[in-house]
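Recap from last week: sequence in, structure out.
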Amino acid sequence: MSKEQILYVKVLEAKGLPSADSNGFSDPYVKLCLNNNEKTAQKTKTIKRTLNPLWAEKFEFANAEGTLNITVKDWNALGRGSVLGTADVALSDFKDGKPAQKWLSLQNKEAKAGSSSSSSPHGELHIILQLIPKGVAPTIDSIAGKDLREVREGKAQLVICVLDGKGLAAKDITGTSDPYCVLEVDKVELGRTNIIEKTLDPLWGVEFMFEIEANSQLLCVSVWDWDLIGSDDSMGVVKIPLKTLEDGRLLNDSFKLEPQKKEKVSGSIRLMLQLTSPEQARVSFQLTKKYFDELVAIVTDPDLSLTYSMLQLYESNDLARAVMNVFNAQNKVPLLFEHVISKEVKATKQDTTLFRTDSVATRTMISYLKYTSNKYGYMEKTIVPIIHEVLANPKGCELDPEKMPKTEKHEENVKTVLKWCERFLAAILNSKCPAEMHFLLSTVRDTVAHTFPSSQIKAVGGIFFLRFVGPAIFAPEGFGLIKSPPSPEGRRALTFVAKILQNAANGVAFGSKEQFMEPFNPFIASAIPKIDAFFDSISRPAGVLPLSTYTEDQKVQDLSVVVKNLQNNLPKLEQKVARDHASSPALLETANIQISILKKLFNVGRSSVIFS
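Predicted structure tokens:
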């Protein structure tokens, strides 16, 4: 049996691409897949406003055989972008295992057969490929960057990362704004961020890469409030003379907004910028990579000496989600959860309080469950159809006699709610949980078993139902399962269902304090063994965790959340780290080194240039 082959591809650059936009340029990116299988598809980042983009991005494909399909496309904010050119590469030509550079002539498969555009060249794409057996170390980087074509004379490369804004002016009658940024060089618009609705402290985390004229003079980043009706309102502008950006250095700073005319402005925006001269552009492709790599290394350090203290100090669901995503991107999720779950269990004195507080462990675990559910559509397949049915017909679900309409009878309403409970329970018990959920819940079970052997199944239920499924039934809008909050009647119906199922998951019958709920005790008694069997099954490993499909854009977004939490609060974190690791000099030393790196990254001391 032949050994599995791994394909490594480095997409370096393209030249002579066709123009797709009215400005005479395109916004190209490259899509790669094997044998036209969309499930294997991977993409480069988009390089705005150029016909000669530079990428230098590396990709890996497992079970590689057949054909590598390459499509260069023009990014379009309004929908499906046009195809700039395509190429197919037969992997059988690379069986010698050596890395090979290729300049590929691009064609256009989408053009009508026989037309001149279907056969005429659509530019060239420069790539490096290596096909080797699984387990063999790739050497693709040994030739990456060598023998590249000469840099286009008179051009420079500008990278701008628009991170966030703080304290912006309120432009709407609601006291908020809907801000976005417009980027211009010498009065020519190059790009825009997305709109962040109803906030004065927007988080964009969007990175742009532009090819500009080497003698360009002025970068303007203006902030605007989006309006549905009428023209958008100016919220201020930042003007940066490009001559102030030293070649090849990364600028990371907050910039105070100034009026464009006489409008009222306030606040600042935080940018990362780097301008690379033509002489340097050949070897400086991903200009902010070093900055983000430093952050990733600190966040995912195996000891979690700084990360755990950070998650405790900043009690933020967004931060927990971002940290979880970064670990997941590095395929280090097991390290994260083994650490945070173990910490939680060791700090718990009674099994009845396990995972019952808003702790680091619960925040990161719920973030992972939500991520996994969204990835596979677990909630959408399992409970969303029933939620829609309940909300379409919520009448007859009130159980409290004091609140029940006079036209309704308690026993009839019990039957109605019981029907919904049975529907939800059957859907959950028959659902197929993804491997990622099995992994997380088996980690919970195994960790709890060492300290509270009799509570392992209850702990699994506490996470899966109390923290995940129950809240999704009660407040589906909070999980993004429905677009708007339920009506009061609909909310009441979902509340009763969630409450009854939660009691069943906890193995607790209703008592005398809620006598009107006692008719559901037989249902609870019959459901308990079924639920326990389900919790037992989903807390056992079920296959290998799939590799992350994390993109560079997602990394920028998540690390921007980390930066936003850290940047103005490093002194507090430094004090907490000192307390947390007072009895462990080695961990304290590691954490202090990481804080020193963060101070450099965040320009503590106001040195705006952080990397040379």
